[in-house]
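User: Hey, quick favor. My workstation is busy. Could you predict this chain's structure for me?
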Amino acid sequence: MLIPYLRSFVVVLLAMISCSAFASIEGRWVLSVDDKNRTLVGVLEIEKDGDGWVAHLEGGPANVSTDGDNIVITADSRDVRGFVFDRRMTGKIMGDAMSGIYEQVGAAAQKEAPGPWRAEREMPTSDVGIPENPFDMTGIWTATQELDFRKYTMALTPAGQEWLKRYLPYYDQPDVRCTSIGLPALATYSFPFEVIESNNRLTMIYEYQGKVRRIWTDGRDPGDFVPPSRMGHSLGRWDGNTLVVETNHLEKTVRDFRGELISENATIEERYTLSDDGSTLNAVITVYDPENYERPPVRRRQWQRNNAADIFPYTCDPDSFYLQMYEDGELEMYLERVDKRF
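Assistant: No problem, here it is.
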């Protein structure tokens, strides 16, 4: 007579273990991978979906599978030469931490040796106001090799997907014809930039495309006569020792190397922090645009203070772009794609 009760007990126990396993990895995780040259950091979000998981890394879809305390995470990426590949992370779940070994899967120009990866639960932040603690951001900043995950696919809405279907980066990307790439792309490129502080503003001088940007710290409106632009209207405020910059008043543009659309109604948030020794600047850049993205896409960058560097003049000749299309007989096709350019 005990056998039916034992069977019921086992079923309940297995269900409890299953629920515990689900609960053990749901939530937000700070994920890092290390190769011999750099450390990549991003936020991994995991949700329960029936018997499996739905996961997003930096706002883009990722694949997560588990078997007991074993876990495999796979996420695509794009290297700086345009090759798309996967990073596959295999490891163990250990309560509020996960770790293991990752490897690069697929062709890539930038080879990454297998290395360790680790994820820890993201610590909750307080909503209580933190006293302002501004830092000195002035000077010239040059990019480090501490890149982000460069997530390739994003969680797009149907409208965002429809736009991307017909987008051809070689022909449609703004900077191939010497027009402004705007934000957020400009803030993620590896060219140096200089920051100058003056009354009620920070001025950023970007070497790439020779762009100048104002970040207003007095909360002003753009005014009636300032048109929307790809650089938008940026307001800065201090959240403790973090400079938070919110940019609106935008024109349509594209987010990054793949050409996902950013609408005029988007908000771009940048969060800048400085290392304790004042030499390293970090940024987390998030696009909030529910017209095109089901989840906000995130990029991260890091720079070193380098006042020995120079900001060089930037030149760009669009004739070479148009001449090549003319010689290849593609100019008519290009003109028919006017809806992909702003």
